[in-house]
Amino acid sequence: MILTIVAASAVATMAQPASELTPAPAPAERAVIAYPPSAFAEAAPDTAYDMILRLPGFAFDKGATVRGLAGSGGNVLIDGQPPVSKNDALDELLKRIPAAAVARIELIRGGAPGIDMQGRSVIANVVRNRTDGVRGAVMTSAHFINDGRVLTSLRAESQAEWRGRRFEASLVYGKGPDDLLGDGPRTRFGPGGEVLIASVVDADAGGLRAWTTGAFETPLAGGRLRLNGAYMRTPASGEITDRISPAGREYEYYTSVRLQQELGARYARPIGPQSSLEAVAFQQWNDVETLADFEAPGLRRDFDLDKAVTETVGRLTLRHTISPALSAEAGAEGALNRLESQTAFTLNGAVVPLPAADVEVEETRGEAFATLTWRANPTLSIEAGLRQEASSISSTGDVVLEKSLSFTKPRLALAWSPGGGRQVRFRLEREVGQLNFDDFVAASSAVSTGAVLAGNPDLSPQQAWVGEATFEQRFGGGAVLVATLRHAELTDVIDRAPLFAGGVAVADAPGNLGDGTKDEAILNLTLPLDRLGLRGGQLKGQGTWRRSEVNDPVLGGTREISGLRPVEWEAHFTHDLPGLQANWGIDATGGYRESYYRLSEIETRKVGIWVVIFAEYKPRRDLILRVEAQNLGARNVQRIREVYIGPRSDDRLAYTDVRDLEYGRAIFVRLRKTFG
Question: How many CB atoms lie under 10 A from the CB of residue 2?
Fold first, then answer.
């Protein structure tokens, strides 16, 4: 609804006669629009992340968790390069860059010579200034939860520059809540609507972040070397007590300890007046141990998962500027990935066999790529690329297999700027997803539901031919409207599929369901409110409407793809008050629905709207106090399980179980002291 109000206000403003609108500045016609620090002065941002969130017509995306370096970065570069890091998220990296260290932020639309667009049509580039000195910050915060918990955290970070060298370090130690769990009723209905179970649930969960990260940059042999590392320990736990009327009790307790370690290096240097070479190496170790116990009258389930993943990646890229309007790059990437997983599941003390409970998987993957970017004229840019991927996957243990895969991935992107602040972008690309190692092993949700969720290493990656069209209109005063339509023709869709024993379906696991489609419509809006009489006010919003279709291996016919949300939206209002050295605003994240289709069950999760009102006060340049009132709408989270007797195709509904939990409201307070 908030997004609808935003759009309506925008239409009212943009419907003014052209003579009443501030003419679009000349930079709006360029592929690269540079925003100096003065463009954000009224907001008085503290970090590069604050500046990125204010960037007109830009929606931040911190990237995807995939193996390898290609496609893993988000839509923000730092000094023209994507970070050589995965566990240390992009938003965390940007929060460690002081706003005073930012020379400008470049919005790159449709591609530009010498810029790696990371397969995206729009990216932002944070360009840091080179000034010797030491900067840093210390931050402490407290989270006051409505159930009485007070969760605190401490963070310290610093950056030092001298003679072209840079050192960065960050320490984080703090607790945080799981805002998807809370208290509320649970009701189980029979096929005829009769109440089988009525209970009250008391649930809470949270975790700890104990993170250490660091990086060092230095000139070396005519080029520049950057080294980075991270050691991140993240334990978490949750407790769910279900008091069933008239008598009885269900109790679930789980713990998860994740240890992430990584080392990365990038070396880049020119090899002539028009060419440069870049080498990247990355190594990570990711260990997770999960324990989950479930107790009910006469019933006990125990689940234990110990998983270790390692990844070694190397990448070499050669870039060459053929002319001021034409550039090319070519390179290769190689990766070695390993998974070792052991899973145990017991029911009332008896061991229950799980498919793919004890597996070792090894993947070797290589990719060669070439990209040509041509600025045909001041209004037209074209990017053409080709990637060739080959991989080999082998598995030992419960599942023994070995297979080789090969895919060709062409890409063509075009950006046309006809004038008047308009730009039209088109993209046609073959995308190939990566196999998720989590699909290879059994899942712990079997503890609470009793459903057997097996793993399956014998998968093919999902592929898609994607066509995309985007229209962008930049108005005077910073108003921007961006509309995108995207269609994907899918092959080898990965979703839950039945497992058979003796010709009878006995469980389900990830599997390839064949062909499918996915359609998306995305609207992004930035609207300054000065013209509406609110100086320093701004509305930003984005909405995504999504429709998908895939074959249903249980019922036949088609259904939506599991886990894809039909609607997502967010809206942000900010009001800068420089005279009071303050700002305030409202952030709203829309509710969503996601459903998972299994052999004998459909599980649906419905999450309500999350609303936050915040205020920041800056009594001094080096001191910031932020207060947030969170979850003002008392968001609820529903889990709806439609459980069948046998496969869903038999149409024998056993019961529908509805759990409706409310996390409650919370207050968050943060004090940040900067120096340098």
Answer: 21
Task: Compute the distance between CA of residue 450 and CA of residue 612 in angstroms, rounded to an integer.
Answer: 36
Which residues neighbour 13 within 8 Å (Cβ) at sequence distance 6 or greater? 475, 479, 527, 531, 532
Give the number of other Cβ atoms within 10 Å of residue 451's Cβ: 18
Furthest C-alpha separation in the chain: 81
Q: Which helix (H) or strand (E) holds 447?
A: helix 446-449
pLDDT tens track for 522-538:
999 999 998 888 999 99
Average pLDDT, the chain: 87
Q: Given pLDDT bands bounded at 50, 70 and 90, which one contains residue 24?
A: very low
Contact (CB, 8 A) for 249 and 297? yes
The answer to whether the CB of 302 falls within 8 A of the CB of 447 is: yes
DSSP annotation string for 408-440: EEEEEEEEEEEETTEEEEEEEEEEEPPPPGGGG
Q: Which of 229, 176, 244, 165 is nearest to 204 (CA)?
A: 176
Q: Is residue 576's pLDDT more than 60?
A: yes
Report the C-alpha gap between 44 and 58 in whole angstroms.
19
Strands 76-78 and 122-128: parallel
pLDDT per residue as tens digits for the range 374-419: 988 889 999 999 999 999 988 888 778 888 999 999 999 999 999 8
Q: Write out pLDDT tens, residues 499-519.
A: 776 667 677 888 999 999 999
C-beta of residue 513 within 8 angstroms of C-beta of residue 551? yes
326: which residues sit within 8 A by CB, 6+ positions away? 113, 372, 373, 374, 375
In whole angstroms, what is the distance from residue 289 CA to residue 301 CA? Answer: 17
Residue 10 structure tokens: 């925008």
Give the least confident one: 111-120, 122-131, 552-561, 650-659. Answer: 111-120
Provide the whole-model pTM: 0.87
Residue 216 bridge partners (DSSP)? 167, 227
* Residue (of 360, 309, 316, 310) closest to 334 by Cα position: 316
CB contact at 8 A, 176 and 205: no
For 492-509, b where at least 16 C-beta lie within 10 A, e where not — what string?
bbbbbbbbeeeeebebbb
Residues 6+ apart with CB under 8 A from 166: 159, 160, 215, 216, 217, 218
pLDDT score recorded for residue 83? 81
Question: Which residue would you say has higher pLDDT here, 412 or 458?
Answer: 412
As a whole number of angstroms, the distance between CA 306 and CA 302 comes to: 14
CA 545 to chain centre: 17
